[in-house]
Amino acid sequence: MFGNRFDNRRTFLSIYLIATAAIIVQSLYCNSLFTFAYNSPFVIIASVAFFMCFTTFTLQSTAINMLSASAFAVYLLHKNPYIWGGIIKRTSLYMWESMSLPMFTLATIAFVVVIYLATVAIDRIRIAITSRI
After folding, report:
1. Do 34 and 40 contact (CB within 8 A), yes or no?
2. How wide is the angle at C-alpha 52 spanned by C-alphas 50 and 75, nearest 5°?
3. Among candidates 65, 69, 46, 66, which has minimal Cα distance to 57?
4. Which of these, 39, 64, 109, 123, could form a disulfide with 70 (CB 3.0-4.6 Å)?
5. Is the pTM here over 0.85, yes or no?
6. Which of 51-55, 67-71, 95-99, 114-118 has the highest mean pLDDT?
7. How far is Cα of residue 3 from the mean position of the Cα atoms in its chain?
8. What is the DSSP string of 63-120?
9. Is 115 buried (19+), middle (13-18) or exposed (0-12) by CB count in 10 A?
10. CB 15 within 8 A of CB 47
11. pLDDT at 110 over 90
12. ∠ CA 75-24-85, rounded to 5°
C-alpha cells in the first residue's frame, strides 16, 4: 500500500524527529504546559509518525503483542484524575524532593514499569472476564 517498507520507515522517522524538534523549540520559547499535552498538534504528529514507523516492522513476539494490546488501558488508567493526581503526581513529587537526580531517574523508570505491568495485569484479567461473556 505504501511502497517500500524501509523508505516509509525513514519517512515516518523523519517526521517524528522533526515534530519532536518542534516540541523542544516550542517548549523553549513558550512557557506553556500545552506544549507537552496529549492534544498538542506537534505531540499528535509525533505520536502518529512514531506509530506509523512501528507499523513497518513485522513482530512475532507474544510478549510484545500482549503488552501492546494493553497500551490503551495503560493510557486510560494513568490519565484517571484519581490515579494521576492522587498516586502518580504525589509519588513523583515525593521522589523528586527526597532523592538525588540519579536515584530519582532510576526510581522513576522503575515506577513507570511497575505502573505499566500492573495495568497490563489488570487488563489481562478484564480480557479474561469479558471474553467469557
Report:
1. yes
2. 60
3. 65
4. 123
5. no
6. 95-99
7. 28
8. HHHHHHHTHHHHHHHHTSHHHIIIIIHHHHHHHHHHS-HHHHHHHHHHHHHHHHHHHH
9. middle
10. no
11. yes
12. 35
Integer Cα distance of 11 and 29 in angstroms: 27
The residue type of 59 is L
The residue written with cell numbers 500500500 in the block is 1
Cell numbers describing residue 43? 505531540
Residues in the chain: 133
Cell of 94: 515525593
How many Å apart are CA 13 and CA 17, to the nearest integer? 6
Asked if 50 and 90 touch (Cβ cutoff 8 Å), the reply is no
Cα(58)–Cα(37) distance, integer angstroms? 30
pLDDT in tens, 15-36: 999 999 999 988 888 877 777 7
How many helices (H) and strands (E) in the chain? 7, 0
